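Internal QA ticket QA-208
Title: Verify multi-chain structure generation after dependency bump
Assignee: T.L.

Test input:
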Amino acid sequence: MQEMEETNQNTTLAMKFTVQKDKLSDAVNRVMKAISTRTTIPILTGIKITAGLDGITLTGSNSDISIKSFIPLEENGSENVEIDKAGSIVLPSRLFSELVRKLPDEQILIEADSRLIAKITSGKAEFSLNGLDPDEYPNLPVINEKDVVSIRKDLLKDLIRQTIYAVSDSETRPVLTGVKWTIKDGRLDCVATDSHRLAQRSVSIESVNETEVFNIVIPGTSLNELSKILDDDDEKNIDLVITANQVLFKTRNMQFYSRLLDGNYPDTSRLIPSDSKTTMTLSTKDLYHSIERASLLAKEERNNVVKLRADGEQVEISSQSAELGRVFETLNTEKFEGETLHISFSAKFMMDALSKIDAQNVRIFFTGPMRPFIIRPIGDEGILMLILPIRTF
Amino acid sequence: MQEMEETNQNTTLAMKFTVQKDKLSDAVNRVMKAISTRTTIPILTGIKITAGLDGITLTGSNSDISIKSFIPLEENGSENVEIDKAGSIVLPSRLFSELVRKLPDEQILIEADSRLIAKITSGKAEFSLNGLDPDEYPNLPVINEKDVVSIRKDLLKDLIRQTIYAVSDSETRPVLTGVKWTIKDGRLDCVATDSHRLAQRSVSIESVNETEVFNIVIPGTSLNELSKILDDDDEKNIDLVITANQVLFKTRNMQFYSRLLDGNYPDTSRLIPSDSKTTMTLSTKDLYHSIERASLLAKEERNNVVKLRADGEQVEISSQSAELGRVFETLNTEKFEGETLHISFSAKFMMDALSKIDAQNVRIFFTGPMRPFIIRPIGDEGILMLILPIRTF
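Actual output:
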């Protein structure tokens, strides 16, 4: 204590506030999701802390995505923050987040001085941390909030989950690592493909500006991180603002920025067959578990390929591994129309698709053993999943 | 199905039984704890399945430890197993354990034929797996069950937890990677040391043979695995049988074998100081959390060293990192006797020791800044922990 006061005589106070530990801890956890320890820009390993007159803002960024979390002075009648001096500092993120969680008292006093040293006091524990210059922290893009689209958070979460799994993980065509979003005529269409499979979902949304058309490609990794923080507050909706190269998702106390991907997204509509030679309805869960069992052997081989043979009411799922053995299983179809079918496909792709479907039954449309086939949940016409088969016969 | 029956015509049935899925799954999970995927002995990647007249025995082994799990025909009035033909086979462990978990029906039919092919049928799923020859599976040691010691499982679990953390993880003195157990005069003494710290606990036990003295060193890794399976059944006690180079722990349906370590375990009694110059009583939890906070900075440095300064009723805990900053905290002692003290030690060693203590308060006995100090929980005289300090002053 004594030592601290001495050094303070030669410096000026740059920031000072008291905050509730649980509020700070929540906000830190949120912005940590944007921070990468592998960044090549040293200041981005830190959390930027800004004390303003209305509350505390924390910022984390990895240049692709940035997250801001705001702690207002008061909320629901209880006091979160008391500001003694507005200011800002950047503190090492990993250490700061661990430290906040482990402080002994429910109140935390944070001070920063002109030498960029932060003093963090809680109960009888007193930390003195070397900070970084907040002026060196990159500015977040200023986004014109004219064209705002509002979307239900639970719907957004489903949209992400049901499309993101089909993005490409290869950088050979970078635009395919993102999900294409089209906003037009009160509808949001999302589509993802890695050129071996495709997932799309279309939902109706409320847009302030009904005449404008937006076409953007959001990186899959950004949507993945966004999805993780959607449950963090109890607001039902999230606002979406789009610019030429950034998208911003925001609720009252949280802002999530992502860069957009450049490049022309391929026209996927021509991939989707419009006719069907064999159509069958199956229990989503039974089919999933049957493929999962077949995959136990198939995954030991290079391709993880399972075979499906459909002949009227019975569907046979099988696979084999030269070394381990083979598996064979029959499923009853709920409904079957069209020709007898032999087809092979990736067990992983099928399981990925089926696991995103909440409906009890799926309808699968085949147009032959070497043509892409379509999976649609019964009861939601907005969802379509497509898989390219693998030649084995 | 058809295909199976055809091949069966050229072979003879080697084993056939039906088992409840949950019972088989539990038994498989238990023996999997002994199986290493990195073994150099191919047959040890498998699970040995033996159908006898009284039930099914599964065996897993990594040569250091072996686990047998028995499923009796009947238990608590419900039927577990029906044996059609006694016999045995070895099946690939990882595949078999995943498969059992994912089978569709509550009943599983397992058959093996003379070609070592196993057929596993459950509901409409049918697996055919290539097995290995059970005659090639190593025999477990035959242990003479004359000298049996019985111990309460919860006590054994505590004993392991409170000593195993202090074993050496270096192979330079292999005997120190184990915990030394001494059974003598109705007492079991356990001690572990890596030569920088020591943990010991002594408990009274019931032994059939009160006159015999046992001195064994059990590998820490074995005790760690044993600890994980102790909760697997609802028996209160476990039996212990010791031979020259093996120890067997057994309950009604489980047997756990471990090899013993050779070599002379050092006499640790002379390490423990009998006098004390500074003695203090502290809250176990408060001290732990204070060290944990100091460690946040200390662990960024090479040694993870924290400093303790005791001067009457106040204890100061501090640490620093040249790069990140420093931390300083005071604790009130419950009781303090003796000289003023400055000492430095590993935060990790202190946290390891304190986290094994269930008592509310600990008494710490210091005999100077460069002498080992002793931690004892207040209320359990059987437990002693010792730590060597680090020179920093």
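Spot checks passed. The two ends of chain B are 78 Å apart (CA to CA).
Status: verified.
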